[in-house]
Amino acid sequence: MTGPEEDDSPVVEDHADPRGDPFLRTRFAVPALPVTYLRRERLNRHLDQALRTPLTMVNGAAGAGKTLLVADWVADWVTGRFGLPVAWLTTDAAGEGPGVFWAYLLRALRTAGVPLPADVGVPADANRVGPALPARLAAELSGRERPVVVVLDEFDRVTAPEIAEQLEFVLHHAGAGLRLVLVTRTEPLLPLLPLHRYRAAGELTEIRDAELAFTPHEAGRLLELHGLSLPQAAVRALVERTRGWAAGLRLCALAAGQSPDPEIYVKEFEADRSPIADFLLAEVLKRQDAETQELLLRVSVLDRFGPGLANAVTGREDAEGILDRLSRGNAFVEYVGHGLYRLHPLFAEILRAHLRMRRPGREPELHRRAAVLLRRSGALAEALGHGAAAGDWQFTAGALIDDLAIGQFFTGPRSDTITEMFSRMGREGEGAAPELVRAALRLARCDIDGGLTHLHRARRGLVEHDGTADEAAARLSCALLEALAARLAGAPDRAEDAARAAARLLDVVSPELLDRHPELTALLLDHLGSVRLWAGRFEEARSALTAVAGLAPGAATALPREDALGRLALIDCLNGWLGRAERRARDAVAETERFGLSPPSGSGVERLVLAAVAVDRDELGRAETLLGTSAESHPALRDPVLEAGRALTTARLHLARGDTEAALHAVERGVRADSVSPWVRAETALVAAAAHLAEGRARAAAGLLPEVPDEQPACAVGAAQVELAAGRTEAAVRLLDRVRPEGRAGPAVTVRAALVRARAADEAGDRAAARALVARALAQARRERLRRPFVEAGPWIRGYLRAASPSQATGRPTTRTGPPSRRPAPPPPVVEELSGRERDVLRRLALTMSTEEIAADLYVSVNTVKTHLKSVYRKLSVNRRNEAVRRARELDLL
Q1: DSSP labels for 595-606?
Q2: Domain for residue 619, yes or no?
């Protein structure tokens, strides 16, 4: 028997899962069978078919005996006779999103002894799961020699359509490695599963309400287990009246067993059947002694509870014995294992309604008591739920702040739950903690002014720091929110002040709290890195963002890690290192997919970087698609860096398409007029100058050069391009000589610098120097697949490009020492012109990307990539990848 010291806390796993919250082990427990359970062999034999069909559905009304039937079959037949692993998951968290669902399902599989590889991943967002996790799980299960049986109990509580769709995907692709059993009351999501297809193929086992109903013979045996022996006529009448409903029969048996004349009682029940609610209250609840009735009414506000929590809510000390007696007596108190009990859902609902009627105003107090004990035992999520139900926002906000969980508003699987919960707070609660929560709510919606107003009130509510951990947690929470507000406002100095204040508090806060909430440090560094990036302090920004990217992967830190990787990619892109930027951006996308984040949950900055890279590679269609996918982002990450980056990339895309008016409009609308960011001002001026030059307004373009500082090589080279286009060739060369971008910047910058010098040499009549510079630019550009600089260069470069041989472009010597080789035959002509998408696939093929990597990069399915590859092979008259790449190079397609 569980000791008293264990009863004072909810039973959860000793170690938290990667989402940051503990699992409830009872959700993986196969329910225990009551002593009066009647095994019905006809149903067990029917369930045996579940081992031969991918999908089984046990669908019946509440109290029809579905769960106990499957539990009996699983325990005695599947694990006993067949020895198959069974993963049981009670999906009883109403309205839970895909992220929570899949995290629990993965844990259920591991609890059942099913080995899963680490790369399956763990969802980070409570409401979203990317396609990678179901795909990897299906692939793992499909390789099993013997199937694993997955039972999803109370599946009717799952309300997210995505879960049904993802389950069907896993079920379809896992093949013989999975047998899925759904135990459900209704079919709200099941239409999303192609039940007709499974039925037509004979791949669905169904047990429905009619089959679950007790026959008169079974009902008679059930009554006998309850100590009742009634005439067959009375039993048949009872079955007819209850329609064989298991719960109704058991309810009647319990009540009749306590009657002096059970047969008369059954007849009266038949003659004057009361609603189940009235029956439960009159014949079950009221037949308990007064103290037991009061205990049942009070614990009805709880979901699962141990004797310790029941004692705390009821003010008693003997709940353990009472609960054990009620459980053994089948009085609708179920023992679910691990020292926990729960009321039958219908019974609990009726009891709560009766509690409100008999004890008006008592329910909030009971929730408050439960919240206090749960908070003390470390079950923060449950404590917050009961605190909110009690309407005690002072306690609830204080619990969140004291636990240093303020970061859960912005990242992790509970962010939506926390935001929705506290959105009901209103004006209740005074002091620092409620004001910090209100500030977080506003900032999570990108409401800077509202957030700062509540932050000011929170600072007023904090007294002088006295060294206590609780106050330090509040001050550290305040520092985090101040850093976020500074980031959203583009205020570097304020962000640095907040970071210094946070650094002083880290030594005061409990290390245990910091370890439990790694998202706080990650968010703080991410805010600091982003605001430094905005200020143009790239190396300082890189330092902070690298620290975030280097944190251990986990659901709680997935969002700041994704954002940090994306912004590191942006720094590389601004410095001209497109290949490095692309790799970092892909790492950020992988982080998103690994933990189930979708673009609206992240910042989307990585897709913005990929779009900028695509523009420089003259892949304009792909750039437009990527810009579209980056448009949605988490409101708390919509800072000036993201807004300016999107505006500038959009403007450059318009310039590449020759739409100068749209380019100017994009930067006017997307970049703040009073921007304090030096690189944003410079890039904006260069975009405007390029638009003026395209319209033949060289003087207007040159007039923008004072806005372009030359501290950063990329800006200096851009200014040199404008000087050259404006006819000031010597000024352009002098600027390049002073800045010397070579060695300081990447190919996207140095190629443009080489082309500026080449054109200057061409205008000076030094064609040999111009030819050598163009060849060097081509060699650098080939490695990065750069095309845009040559398109922008103008007509003068065409002759040099035609004259440049492959050896010159790559920098290899052209001298030969042996006899002249025979001129190779020209390659066969292309059968048919390659489409734009086929060219995209071909370019990635040249980078030795796998089919799966190409599919992920182009956001298409693997089968679509394979179809394009077959078409490319046919059009190029080849049979293999390396032949296709070599042939494409011969035809100047790459």
Answers
A1: TT--GGGS--HH
A2: no
Beta strand ranges found along 40-126 (DSSP E): 55-59, 86-90
Amino acid identity of 747?
P
Q: Is 826 left (phi over 0), alpha (psi -120 to 50) or beta?
A: beta
With contact defined as beta carbons under 8 Å apart, do 561 and 551 qualify?
A: yes
In the three-class reduction of DSSP (H, G, I as helix; E, B as strand; rest coil), residue 817 is classed as coil
Query: Would residue 573 count as lying in a domain?
Result: no
Crossing angle between the packed helical segments 246-257 and 262-271, to the nearest 10 degrees? 130
Residues 260 and 316 both lie in one domain? no
Residue 182, strand partner residues: 57, 152
C-alpha 65/C-alpha 818 separation (Å) is 89
What's 608-649 look like in SS3? HHHHHHHHHCCCHHHHHHHHHHCCCCCHHHCCHHHHHHHHHH
Asked if 858 contacts 851 with a C-beta cutoff of 8 angstroms, the reply is no
DSSP state of 75: I
Cα torsion 552, 558, 561, 562: sign: positive
Domain of residue 310, residue span: 290-360
State whether residue 150 is helix, strand or coil.
strand
The region that residue 797 occupies, defined by phi over 0 for left and psi between -120 and 50 for alpha, beta otherwise, is alpha
Domain boundary among 784, 818, 852: 818
Same domain, 769 and 856: no
Q: What is the DSSP letter of 60?
A: -
CA 680 to CA 719: how far, in whole Å? 14
Contact predicate 558/591, CB 8 Å: yes
Name the one residue in this structure whose structure tokens are 């019974």.
347
The region that residue 794 occupies, defined by phi over 0 for left and psi between -120 and 50 for alpha, beta otherwise, is left
Same domain, 91 and 173: yes
- Domain check: are 141 and 203 in the same one? yes
Q: Which of 305, 382, 300, 395 is nearest to 349 (CA)?
A: 300
- Predicted confidence (pLDDT) per residue in 196-243, tens digit: 677 778 889 999 878 998 999 999 999 999 888 888 888 888 887 677
Task: Please name the residue that has the structure tokens 């090589």.
Answer: 713
The SS3 of residue 335 is strand
d(CA 452, CA 478): 11
Q: What is the pLDDT of residues 644-692, one digit of tens each?
A: 999 999 999 999 998 999 999 998 887 776 667 889 988 988 999 999 8
Q: How many CB atoms sit inside 10 A of residue 151's CB?
A: 27
Q: How far apart are CA 593 and CA 122, in angstroms?
A: 10
31 with 327: CB under 8 angstroms?
no
Q: Check pLDDT > 50 for residue 392.
A: yes
> In this predicted model, what pLDDT tens digit does every residue of 76-122 receive, in sequence order?
776 667 788 999 999 865 557 788 888 889 999 999 999 998 888 77
Three-state helix/strand/coil letters over 214-235? CCHHHHHHHHHHCCCCCCHHHH
∠ Cα 700 702 708 (to 5°): 120
333-337 and 86-90 strand pairing: unpaired
Check whether 324 has a pLDDT greater than 70.
Answer: yes
**672-692: string of b/e by CB count within 10 Å (b at 16+)?**
eeebebbbbbbbbbbbbbbbb
The number of CA neighbours under 13 Å toward the Cβ of 192 is 14
